[in-house]
Amino acid sequence: MPSVHAERNRRGRQRSREGDTMLKLYRFPGATCAAKVLMALAEKSVLFEDICLDRTELATDWYRRLNPAGVVPTVIHDGVVIVESSVILNYIEDRFLGSGTRLRPDEPLLRASMNHWLKLLDDMLPSLGTATYAIAARDRYLALPQAERDAYYDAIPDAYVRQSRRDAIELGLAAPEAARALENLVGLTARVEDSLRDRPFLCGDFSLADISLAPFISRIETLGILASAPERPLFDGWWARVRERPSFITGVEGSTPAPAVAALRAAGTRHAEEIAGLIRVPVAG
Amino acid sequence: MPSVHAERNRRGRQRSREGDTMLKLYRFPGATCAAKVLMALAEKSVLFEDICLDRTELATDWYRRLNPAGVVPTVIHDGVVIVESSVILNYIEDRFLGSGTRLRPDEPLLRASMNHWLKLLDDMLPSLGTATYAIAARDRYLALPQAERDAYYDAIPDAYVRQSRRDAIELGLAAPEAARALENLVGLTARVEDSLRDRPFLCGDFSLADISLAPFISRIETLGILASAPERPLFDGWWARVRERPSFITGVEGSTPAPAVAALRAAGTRHAEEIAGLIRVPVAG
């Protein structure tokens, strides 16, 4: 247990009154998957210890012992480490079932639909990563000397993930998978539209599915990708309903520093024409 | 609904007496993720309609309408299509909760551990694919003329997945990710050993976690990878307990045609020395 480091990094939004039984969340500002967990904790009115890391701490030995992939979020509760946001979301609902908003439907087919959204969005993280790097995050790396950039690439263990990240940074929106990534992300709005024909949220009542999608949509809106999506009135209604929830305001908007949002938005604006050109919108008819 | 094709391909192990309310499973013989679903259905004593496809049918328009990725398993129940084996497994437990074996722990931390196993094994499918292609399945493709092989590669939509598959087939165990894939797979046995210190199955009682792992271990045993794993007595006990379950015998062993098993096993034997050489076993002490 990295108690020393945890103490050092603690920004205790809610200070522990229950000692070790209080849930601890490790995250860093603006991280999509940690934002899901923040939203769920807000919906369930769960007090927790909020431990904000900076990016360099993700690669440290003490953090890798908690989270071998070196990503956020990580949760520790009752002395047990839980990783993977979709696992954490279901844990929060199981553990705090009677508190705050019910976040999972009881009906088995609706529950399967919810779990499918969680899986789909996990599987779409590479597309969100490609889009974020190809449009905006590459600027931070391109400012480094080539040797430092190469060292960053070399530290990515999987050869194909490494090549994908290298392409997104070095080639930007000309990277081999950039167009497909944008289309996948815009395709989410069509899926939402289909799901909402007879319901206000993805699986009926508001659920973990909506929570998992919200930070994705927030990111593609900030990057200027959403502006190239075809008009989708049901999606627009959903997005307005999600954005006005206090859990979205604190968990997603409140967890991303304003300068980071501004940088993403500026990069999106700079590449707006290129983005629109890469998204092949099917002709209606 | 592909009723004509379904009729044509039906090998009805259990014929429907309930019409459309009977669960339909689309699979093909020897498919790892479909074997998980077969095991779960056997544990829950659920009657189902067993629809065996051949590989060419996965790419057809009617099947892609059910399963856009063109993979198995796909389930249809009460007129609703469910894809993704981990989603299907949880659905089966939710829907047939009171029937057969209970396959999910109630305690929230154990349930999180179970969901983590499901996620981990989903994420390890590329490693299993790389190992299977690099050791055995490549032979089938190398027998084709290069133009046909190129057409097969070109049909894979993601550039990095395409390159990974191409490397596994063209380069075999010399492919860039082959060694890491084998180490990931052997690493599963260490994880199992850790999980079993005080329990007979991964999450206490037998659960969906054990079901998800069983076809993986069966495959790496057949490919001769398991033989290079360090000795793990708790793992061995688990594997013996799993293999004697009727659900394993019908769902995993019974779902893979004997000639396919023989071909995988022969390829593993042929490459045994190379496999052992690629797996860096940490020195004890």
UniProtKB/TrEMBL annotation, chains A, B:
InterPro entries: Glutathione-S-Trfase_C-like, Glutathione-S-Trfase_C_sf, Glutathione_S-Trfase, Glutathione_S-Trfase_N, GST_C, Thioredoxin-like_sf. Gene3D superfamilies: 1.20.1050.10, Glutaredoxin (3.40.30.10). Residues 21-100 form the GST N-terminal domain. Residues 107-261 form the GST C-terminal domain. CDD domains: GST_C_family (cd00299), GST_N_family (cd00570). It holds the Pfam family GST_N_2. Signal peptide: none annotated. This is Glutathione S-transferase family protein. It comes from Sphingopyxis macrogoltabida (Sphingomonas macrogoltabidus).
